[in-house]
Sequence to fold (66 residues):
Amino acid sequence: MKNVKPRLRKILKEKNLTQNQLAEITGISQASISRFDKNAQHLDWHLVCIAEALEVSIEELFEIEE
Fold:
């Protein structure tokens, strides 16, 4: 089984952004972004908006371990 976990914290750090700034850019609440970062909830449209805002693919939002 593969272990999939979000890389959002790392990507935000690389891009010098905060969750609050990402929330402003995407229109997604900071609480929802936090839930994604904690691997608690992944809504499809959130993934698309976050990936577009950060200029990464949806796959790049996750770290996949075998």
In short: The chain has a mean pLDDT of 95. The chain has one domain: 3-65. The helical segments are 8-14, 19-26, 30-37, 44-54. The first helix runs from residue 8 to 14.
